[in-house]
Molybdopterin oxidoreductase family protein (Ciceribacter ferrooxidans), 706 residues
Amino acid sequence: MNLASPIRTRSVGHTACPHDCPSTCALDVDIDENGRIGRVRGAADNDYTAGVICAKVARYAERLYHPGRLLTPKRRKGGKGEGVWQEVSWDEALDEIADAFVKAEQVHGSEAVWPYFYAGTMGQVQRDSIERLRHAKRYSGFMGTICTNMAWTGYVMGTGALRGVDPREMAKADCVVIWGTNAVATQVNVMTHATRARKERGARIVVVDVYDNPTMKQADLGLILRPGTDAALACAVMHIAFRDGYADRAYMEKFTDDPAGLEAHLATRTPQWAAAITGLSVEEIEAFARLVGTTKKTFFRLGYGFARSRNGTVSMHAALCVPTVLGSWQYEGGGAFHNNGDIFRLNKAELTGTSYLDPDVRVLDQSQIGRVLTGDAEALRHRGPVTALLIQNTNPANVAPEQRLVKRGFLRDDLFVAVHEQFMTETAELADIVLPATMFVEHDDIYRAGGQSHILLGPKLVEPPATVRTNLFVIEELAKRLGVADRPGFGLTEREHIDRMLKASGKPGFDVLAEEKWLDCQPSFEEAHFLNGFGYPDGKFRFRPDWARAPAPNRPPASVGILGPVDQLPTFPDQVDIIEVADAEHPFRLATSPARNFLNSSFSETRTSAEKEGRPEVMINPSDAARLGVEPGDLVRLGNRRGSLRIHARVTEAVKPGVLVAEGIWPNKAHVDGEGINVLTGADAVAPHGGAAFHDNKVWLAKDAA
């Protein structure tokens, strides 16, 4: 096999969407005679993508050929953030980064360097190779907490495994419950399969969320509840299931740990109790419970959004308990799905250099970058400062919580920052060295789809600009300069990494994947529906999770330990108010939900996406607006103990009284005063395994007096 040979040139290239989205769509890309991409379409022959992709990816050429794209390495001139740059060669830039890392290590030890990355690409090679350099050099460890911790932990606390019903089975359901995700905006393929079930089977679609978003508008039954109250709704639904005979007692006796204890616990969790907490009516709760209770083939598609609260782990677990009480798992088109992370079993040991990992090296929390960079002793694990950063695939100055702390940290005179990026993001603007990065059609990579069941190849389809480089190139070149390039795992091309990873995982190699385009790793019906038992040794679903000791995908290393107020987590599913409860000083609850035309901070740089979104706004109910004298379009000020910012008001019935929603993430500079919504979000660790509670903020709102 010749791993260096190029993929055969053709007018249509086949690849996968690299962005941080559970769908990981299979793509067909038109390529013209000049080697430029044109139209991007969903692959019709992939039965999950099914020919459908989101509009922002369909117009990817706008992003690839954007006039503002970074094309040359740059060195900062003048003060940090002043925006004055000098072009330098790649060798000069990489030499300076390596020199800065060596100096940081000489003064404060290897932990002074913190390679910092996330999911700007979901490609295994381009995203995760930074870990190999980290481990080889004993740089500070990285605990990724900004996205999945609460959702994955809550799910696995019940099932014992991060997998579930084949998401394509949504099309075979008689009822699809889309809980806590605005799928129209963030996972368009969920809607493909749900609406197919409605069209072909007459299935009903239920949407549970905190505002009337585009997915809610597709619902046959829409339930708009107060943020952070999902567990109360789930408990009431289960109460009704036991009360009215919908609960499958025989199923629970065989497959669950303590159904009798759960039933006794739920005796007081009535619809009236839940209505007072959630803001839903008793009639809405009863109707929901009756629908799912009488519809055996009910598919619960559980999202991430409702878990991004301080009680999010509990909320996910509680929602997951509903199909278990009902016995929905037994039926084709029934059960639950959140993420398929456990099914792929990719051996990434060589790619990430785990053989070099030293458990004595400290591990720092991604979400607490503001605290880390401003010298918070606990965030630093009571060790020395971080004085050098290498950042790939993320934009923390925009997307991380406690934004004012983050920016203050980046402005430290003694901090060296290198950013490898596609655009001059607000993080790049605060850097000392900025390196231009390739985009996904310009390099080889491999992807695994959390929201479906495929491993997909993303081969290089077009040539990048001559002056930009891949993430892997940067890691390899730094490894040479830092004296670790001779270690196993270094010195390989992307295709060699992909081939070796696949074969080490017992899967066909690169050539087979290039021919087939993807591998379907979906387990059997019995395994996906847990009909052979759930993932715990005894095969039982846990109504009574062991929050502190049970294994979970995002469990922190032993050096970090269990996080947050674990002692306040409930024995059984329950509403637990470890959230930022509204009070007299902060009467509103704010969620920072995703916008349809952005993906985190990506696509906010493209003209079409920005024009479609308009401007940063906060949604406020008309009754709240009238009480505060706020008219549509007025500037208002939002604030809490972390800070305040000005933003325009959108007066709308889409949100309930007392609830605010600000869709984004907009660049900070798009806001009136140059500070974005993450001024208001917190970085305190969520129990039990950490995470960022982006949708859990108590705030005040006032009409701006300026």
Q: What stands out?
A: The chain has three domains: 74-147+345-455+466-520, 150-341, 588-703.
